[in-house]
Amino acid sequence: MDVISVIRTKRDHGELSDEQIDWVVDAYTRGAVADEQMSALAMAILLNGMTEREISRWTAAMIGSGERLDFSALSRPTVDKHSTGGVGDKITLPLAPLVAACGAAVPQLSGRGLGHTGGTLDKLESIPGWRARLSGEEVLRVLEEVGAVICAAGEGLAPADRKLYALRDVTGTVESIPLIASSIMSKKIAEGTGSLVLDVKVGTGAFMKTLDDARELARTMVALGGDAGVRTVALLTDMSTPLGRTAGNALEVRESVEVLAGGGPSDVVDLTVALAREMLAGAGIDGVDPADALRDGRAMDVWRRMITAQGGDPDAPLPTARETHTVTAPRDGVLTRLDAYAVGLAAWRLGAGRARKEDAVQAGAGVELHAKPGESVRAGQPLLTLHTDTPEVFQYALGALDADALTISPPGTPHAARPVVLERIA
Ligand code: URA
């Protein structure tokens, strides 16, 4: 087999054979296919797509490039959630302990942020002492004793995807439905969860900007999960405006703890409960209302045990940024638009995210929202507070929040809030 013929097949709108797929994924993982050759193939796939058979085989080849975890010895059913990434998306933090409090085991192998969307591990690392890296035995022990674990995926899980995703990130080939679906599902299937709930984000702050694209991605992933014996459902959820009132690592942990304490912003609570209901149904657990476990402190109790089991101190004060800058409303009116991408970019520029994989993030950096779309504001009222340790970036962050990012319409303008959950695909 030679890589040029594989690239030419896809470049010329052909269908890759099973043998070609198995060979190229394996050869790339071993280093026998060069990065420039794989990036040419990834671009051909992005431009010309893949059939269902090709996507399914590509996913199987990526799973086969590494190890598969096995949680079958656990006494509880396993269920996981994956979000395609958004701004202020801290849902995993309250969700994993909530679902564990209702009786499931939640092995949440998570990632770090790259670009304008935050990463769950970066958020949790703002808790003093908390460790993202656990051994396989530790993961099993925490799952059995606490019910939920949020940690970094080991190097051995779908290594082909690890290499290919890093390459796609720097070659403009991330936004391909076959490549995104196979990337996400290869990791989730290799992780060995019994069931999976996908949170497919739609809007300016998400990979998928339109409902049609989000539907296609969701259907592709649900089918891949089903073929692999993982019960999979997807919720399409709104990402035109940030979730909750914070975007940034420690800021989002603080907001998640408010939700676990029975408060917090209603969109975060609603999405957490909606995803929890789907996860419990997937795990076959009936007759438990997750909203109760949030209200009565059971989810908070699991959160505290989960953080402690991973070396963190749930009572330690969270880091705060050294400097803040507040943006105020220029006039009276109704906030009718607050763009998710602009807020995510501002948080990233303030230091909450990284430009390269090896960069450090600032725990306290980010954006706090004092108003959400649909709320009335008065001239001079704080709209946003920017947080950073490096005040020289304020201007740069403010550049992301230009006139298109934020609209204040005349007082009394009606504003129909978009529901958080837009559709369900099973
Ligand atoms: N997240 C992933 O894990 N892979 C992608 O391709 C996109 C988002």
Mean pLDDT score, rounded? 95
Tell me the β content. 15-25%
Helix and strand content put the structural class at alpha/beta
CATH architecture of the largest domain: 3-Layer(aba) Sandwich
The percentage helix is 40-55%
The description of the largest β-sheet is: 4 strands, mixed
Order of helices and strands: HHHHEHEHHEHHEHEEHHHHEEHEEEHEE
Distance between the termini: 38 Å
What is the fold named in CATH at topology level of the largest domain? Answer: Pyrimidine Nucleoside Phosphorylase, Chain A, domain 2
The rounded Rg comes to: 21 Å
Residue runs with pLDDT of under 50 for 5 or more positions: none
- Shape, please? globular
Counted up, domains total 3
What count of helical segments does DSSP give? 16
Protein name: Thymidine phosphorylase
GO molecular function: 1,4-alpha-oligoglucan phosphorylase activity; thymidine phosphorylase activity
InterPro entries: Glycosyl_Trfase_fam3, Glycosyl_Trfase_fam3_N_dom, Glycosyl_Trfase_fam3_N_dom_sf, Nuc_phospho_transferase, PYNP-like_C_sf, PYNP_C, Pyrmidine_PPas_bac/euk, Pyrmidine_PPase_CS
EC number: 2.4.2.4
